[in-house]
């Protein structure tokens, strides 16, 4: 994850009243019979980079649009910099929004696009000129001021959309999947630039994305949404290493899930392996799920003990399983292995390329992991997640 230098901003007053603070107090939004946002409460600190993360339909974009003023809650209140904005149109809120579709005017130059909002407010020409130059410098696009948007790349257009939003000096910048149209390399470059820009400016960024990598690399905190509610709100390290539920564990990063009876409160006896955790035991009994990150799994050629290539049973010890290698992928810094454990499950393993073992498809392998790397989730939590935490299948 990329971490930008911290910026300290000295603002008087309580956090909820400071410039750039956003408070959502029990907001609810329906579209007909469909509940899009369900009694959601959230405080975004001044100068914070907060991401709303979740799959399509979880309510993240609707939440952003209510902050922006494009939608209005059925219930609840929204405060920006300590003042309620219920009923206020977008142009009367101290926010600006950057969308995935940059919506630049093709017949205007870059400078004219950036200046447009100030012209509508009848800002003095001299001030417009100075602020446009400063905004273009901010996104390193001043030398393109006279070009038309069609003469720019996708990444350059994205920078212009940012400059147009920032030129009005909002206390809150809302970003609705602004990197979605960019290719992977450019998207990763823009993630770094966005975070550095936000740290330098010290204004509040609220970023909507379904891409966990974007959220992990840029955010001070991440609000993971599910069915119109926040499932977990925490920093990137916490949601990755200590997810609050199986839903969060599955959505942030990749997991290998095992299902079976809970034994002794600290182990799941799946059909292929007993998965034991060093964490706090789960109360009760019945079915539970255990999760292990692919990067925490070790892999080696099988010496012939255990079940060999078929992977039809467990190893001699907990957290050890035998199987057949059915896929090898080079991911650059890591090697990914797909191991068949049985007819109904496979295991994903990722190892740093320099230390990755030399294995071929069809090899019999043994996989293991530490109990400290195992997360346990109760049966109800596991059962509710459906496709999100389904184990890898063939």
Tell me about this structure.
With 394 residues, the chain is α+β, with helices and mostly antiparallel strands. It folds into two domains: 15-241, P-loop containing nucleotide triphosphate hydrolases (Rossmann fold); 246-389, Beta Barrel (OB fold (Dihydrolipoamide Acetyltransferase, E2P)). The chain has nine helices and 20 strands. The chain has helices at residues 60-68, 110-120, 125-138, 154-166, 184-201, 212-218, 236-241, 246-251, 379-384, and strands at 22-31, 34-44, 49-53, 75-80, 83-84, 95-99, 172-176, 204-209, 221-226, 229-234, 256-263, 267-269, 274-276, 287-292, 298-301, 320-330, 334-342, 345-352, 364-368, 374-377. The strands form four sheets. A six-stranded mixed sheet has the order 6-7-8-3-9-10, sandwiched between helices. The protein has a five-stranded antiparallel sheet with strand order 13-12-11-14-20. Helix 2 packs across helix 3 (125-138).
